[in-house]
Amino acid sequence: MTAQTKKRGATENGDGGVGLGLAAFIANNEDVGPIVRHAFESGKPEALLHSLQNIVKMKEVDIEEICRLHYEEFILAIDELRGVLVDADELKGTLSDENLRLQEVASALLLKLDELLEIYSVNSNVGEALSTLKICLQVISLCKICNRDIAEAKLLSALKTLELIEKDYLQNIPLKLLKKVIHKQVPMVKLYIEKKVCSEFNQWLVYIRRTAKEIGQVAIDQTSLTCQKDEGMCARQREAEESSRVGFDVNADTLDVEHMAEEPMLEFDLAPVYRAHHIHIGLGLGEKFREYYYNNRLMQLNLDLQFSTSQPFVESYQPFLAQVAGFFIIEDRVLRTADGLLSEGQVDTMLETAISKVTLILEEQFSRIDAANHLLLIKGYVSLFGATLKKYGYRSMSVVEILDKTRDKYLELLLSDCRKKLNYAFSKDSYERIVIKKENEYDTNIAAFQLEPVDGVPNLPYVAPFSSSVPNACRIVRSFIEELVSYLSHSGSTNIYDVVKSYLDKFLIETLNDGFLNLIHGGSLEFPQVVQIAGNIAILEQSCDMFLWHAARLCGVPRCLLEKPHSGLTARAVLKASQNAAYNGLITLVNSKIDEYMLQLTSINWTLEEAPEHANDYMNEVIIYLHEVVSSGQQIVPRDALFKVVSGALSHISDSITTVLLSDRVKRFNANAAASIDIDLKVLEGFADDTYRMTGFSDLRKETSFRDCLAEIRQLINLLLSNQPESFMNPVTREQNYGALDHKKVAIICDKFKDAPDSLFGSLSSRATVQSARKKSLDVLKRRLKDFS
Domain Exocyst complex subunit EXOC6/Sec15 C-terminal spans what residues (predicted)? Predict the structure, then answer.
């Protein structure tokens, strides 16, 4: 068979391409495995088998040709071919089995392939889902963080998380439902944050209003402490200047400024305000919150300024002013640290509102106060209130101006209070010299007021030369000075010493001095008490310099300025005059007491039949009383003043006896009665001489002695008992022996004097002759006195 025949046969079989290829592979002795595999993979094993059969037929033709040509070889070839055929059948069976096995394996692989393709699809979907889920998880994580921050009250952090969600994630969320939910919840969460922070801020408003009182009180206390330190430094500086002036060490009294404690900063919580402000700014509501803050704080201020009259002002002024001060201290801190939450204009508006209201309240309450110490306490606290506001940069001039308007009222109240205290001290004083038994009593009542020049404590018990009203009066005067200086120093005046000196003079004259004068002229005190009052006045008159120095020290005036002429108090001279008035009161009191004794003179028997041997009882009582006067007055009253008292008393006794003899109560009296008066006078003259000599009055070198005070009554009694009464009309004799007598008084008394008793046997007595001569002389005197008149 030729090549054309082969080609035609292959083509007729319809699979020339596969057959040619397979034949080429077989001809070249190559592996036909790929062709077999391809046939099975393409699902056309029948074509392969058909091609193989065609090849076999072709080979059979070739074999026949060859066999014909090569019979023997052909026979051999047939044998080989038969073997090949057997092998082919075996191969066919094998291929069939492999095909089956291949189909079985391929089916499983195809299933796996389908699964793999499905897995590839799932993988793509899962990747997309993971990408979506990642975004959603990030958003949900942020939402969780936001919820956690809100639960932990970290509202600012929560707000920042919301801003992050809105800015970076909200538009990129792939899930529409989640995106819708987030888009819906974000405004709600913002509203919740706004309400939450507003709730916290409202709680802060309650807290800060409750705390403002304490804040203000602490700030005012700090201001008070600062003022005290300043005053202490000024006082030490003045002491240093005084020490340097007199030659002491200047550095001994200097202040160690380095060790002075610094003023602590007031602590109060503004974190809720800062947080609320920042959160509202983050929410885009900054202006709304600023308005909300201002309106609420202004409302709180108005509530703080609503003063209740149910409680006395003196008990409520400190909490009231501390509340207002605390309010503005807080606002000052907010203004400086809250990043524009408040403006200076808003703070000024609130300050003007507060100052206006406080001013009205103070003016009204000041008009109702009736106690100086209350007014001083309130004024001092108001001054500290103004100083505290000034320290924080506020103006409070109108409040300070109110204080200046209350000065006159305060001084009236202060004078009235001190007057009441003095009157109470005077009323409780027994006016007996106080006895100091303890050292602390000496320090409190004597050394503290420099009432004794002695350094150190004397031997105890110690009898002071004054009564209890003197240290009490010193306390009252010093209290008056201190309260007055304290009041005036709060007014801001620099030169208050002249004002203090003026009012101190007024107080000492119109209150202290008038109090003593009222006691002196009251008429309810005994002689020892008036003596003690006179001694008290002398002590207080000497204490005027101490009072003035105390005022100068408090006012910051150097002591050297007090040594200038005319720098003392007028009150000292006034007290000196009152001391003299007290001595004159002693004279009046003694004479009044003597008048009580002299009333007995009118009840004695003026027509005695026999001359008495002893003095009358009234004269004994007078002598006892005069001894008491001298002994009690000698310890306190100066000798000049006591001399006037005793001489006045003796003169008064003389005048009293003369007045009784001149009065209508004595119709007549005889020589025995005159002798009785003579005995009384001798006793009185003995007292006068002893007192004048033994008590040192003779050292005064007065022109008259105590005996001279009795000259009138002595000369009168001598005249009545004289044997020649008519010698009174002799000018020389009258000048020598009766110079103190008035002829008119002598005429009246002589008319009442009957030298001898009018009895039936009067002419028979042993003294009849002498009495007759005296009577004749007396009758002559009476006639001549009538002629002289």
Answer: 400-752
Question: What residues pair up with 436 in beta bridges, in sequence order?
Answer: 462
Q: Distance between CA atoms of 643 and 299, rounded to whole angstroms? A: 80
pLDDT, the chain, mean: 78
Q: Could you tell me the pLDDT band of residue 386, with boundaries at 50, 70 and 90?
A: confident
- Quote the pLDDT of residue 453: 63
Measured distance CA(340)–CA(348) in Å, rounded: 15
CB-CB neighbours of 3 under 10 Å? 7
Q: Which CATH number covers residue 431?
A: 1.10.357.30
Note the pTM of the prediction, 2 decimals.
Answer: 0.62
- Could you list the residue range(s) of the whole structural domain that residue 687 is in? 604-757+769-787
Q: Which pLDDT score, from 0 to 100, does residue 296 have?
A: 92
3-state secondary structure 232-246: HHHHHHHHHHHHHHH
In a domain, 201, yes or no: no
> DSSP labels for 5-57?
HHHHHHHHTT-HHHHHHHHHHHHTT---HHHHHHHHHTT-HHHHHHHHHHHHH
Burial class for 756, CB neighbours closer than 10 Å (0-12, 13-18, 19+): middle
What are 209-240's pLDDT values in tens digits? 888 888 888 888 888 888 777 666 655 655 55
pLDDT tens profile 752-762: 887 655 444 44
Angle at 690 between CA 684 and CA 695, to 5 degrees: 125
User: How buried is 196 (Cβ within 10 angstroms: 0-12 exposed, 13-18 middle, 19+ buried)?
Assistant: middle
388 and 412, same domain (yes or no): no
C-alpha distances (whole Å) from 147 to each of 139, 141, 165, 188, 285 are 12, 10, 13, 12, 22
